Amino acid sequence: MKKLLPIFAAFVCAALLSGCGAKEAVPESGHDLAGLKFKERVENLYADQFTIDRYEGGYSMIYTEGDDYLIVPEGMDAPDSLDGGVKIINRPVNNIYLAATAAMGLFDAIDGGDAIKFSGSEADEWYIDYAREAMEKGDMLYAGDYNEPDYEMLLTNGCKLSVQSTMIEYAPEVKEKLEELGITVLTDLSSYETHPLGRSEWIRVYAELLGKGDEADALMKEQAAQLDAVTADADTGKTVVFFYINAGGQAVTRKSGDYVSKMISLAGGRNVFTDLEDDTRLSTVKLEPERFYETAKDADVLIYNSTIGGEIHTIDELIAKNAMLADFKAVKSGDAWCTRDSMYQETMKLGAIITDFHSIFTGDTESNPPVYLYRLEGGVE
User: For the residues 175-191, what does the mean pLDDT come to?
Assistant: First the structure.
């Protein structure tokens, strides 16, 4: 048993983003860094998982809850006195291996998709037009999933940076191997953001890599304006159930603290499930049929999540998933909707998605038709 304790401790250290005492706190704004003169701190509107400081000469430091990254201008070197734990990213930033699906829409929004050469998803898995078309043309190559990348392809094609999701925590040996080969790993922590638009705000991180900070700032102001327009009169009093039916016939919904649940609330809806939490990192919860039926049957609005089983288009298709849905108030009233497949990859469109929710909850879909959801056709016979 004593022999296992050091192994367990090492595993815990690897699993925790902050490390075992190695991660220092973000310094207060205004501090110089390793001889670099402080210029400005980028103001975040919603995100709390990263901080960006800029220094004279074109240097930037990205502090995250995991690792810290110094962006070095083209033709320049990192300061000799820099903390050895800081990861270095040299400009120009290109030939990126992107395994964090949510980041693709952010790169695309700042016209930075061409910096990505390698994808962790196949062409038919992309709903971002740029990514799918780039892979079909051969401008972007499939380099394997996050946990089994094609190291040889990455090395021979000059990859120096990999953007990974938090799933890389479950494959620490892959991260270690990539960095051993000279490929810096930047972990996208947007899924840990407490505010839904904090996810969108990770566009600032990728814009900083590419020198497009002004574009990111403009896009975030646009997102904030969309949210402000909705939250000014947010509470509609409408109750909402958001779910899908899995292959075993169980209803699967989002945790009460999940970002989709928060988006529903920001849009003026009230999620019928208010206390769904557990100790796992999963964002979803499976429910027993009885509990799901009793809690959700009288919801004013039903939203079917197409992420796993794909889009459905009619009430009949919905009921075919589980016959009990025929008794639901929203099915009978025709207030049953489905998300489009693309919704979960549109990280830069969360303000628009909240607006779509609000349009549905207020019954204003004729004058403000939703883009990322659509009403199911037909009705119960």
Answer: 97
| 284 phi/psi in degrees, rounded to 5 | -120, 165
Contact call for residues 86 and 109 (beta carbons, < 8 A)? no
pLDDT tens digits, residue range 113-165? Answer: 999 999 999 999 999 999 999 999 999 999 999 999 999 999 999 999 999 99
Cβ 263 vs Cβ 350: under 8 Å: yes
- State how many domains the chain has: 2
Torsion of CA 71, 167, 126, 244, to 10 degrees: -140
Domain boundary among 206, 224, 242: 224
CA dist 51 and 49 (Å) reads 7
Inform me whether the pLDDT recorded for 233 exceeds 80.
Answer: no
179: domain range? 15-224
Q: Are residues 207 and 182 in the same domain?
A: yes
CB atoms within 10 A of CB 325: 24
Q: Give residue 20's pLDDT.
A: 44
Across 285-289, 317-321, 341-345, the highest mean pLDDT is recorded for 317-321
Residues in the chain: 381
Tell me: do 239 and 348 sit in the same domain: yes
By the 8 A CB rule, do 66 and 310 touch? no
Q: DSSP secondary-structure letter at 196? A: H
Instruction: Map residue 161 onto helix, strand or coil.
Output: strand
What is the number of alpha carbons within 13 Å of residue 20 lying toward its C-beta? 9
The CATH number of residue 112's host domain is 3.40.50.1980
Q: What angle do CA 122, 16, 177 make, to 5 degrees?
A: 50
Q: Does residue 311 sit in helix, strand or coil?
A: coil
Query: How far is the C-alpha of 192 from the C-alpha of 190, rounded, in Å?
Result: 5
pTM, two decimals, is 0.89
**φ and ψ at residue 241, rounded to 5 degrees:** -120, 125
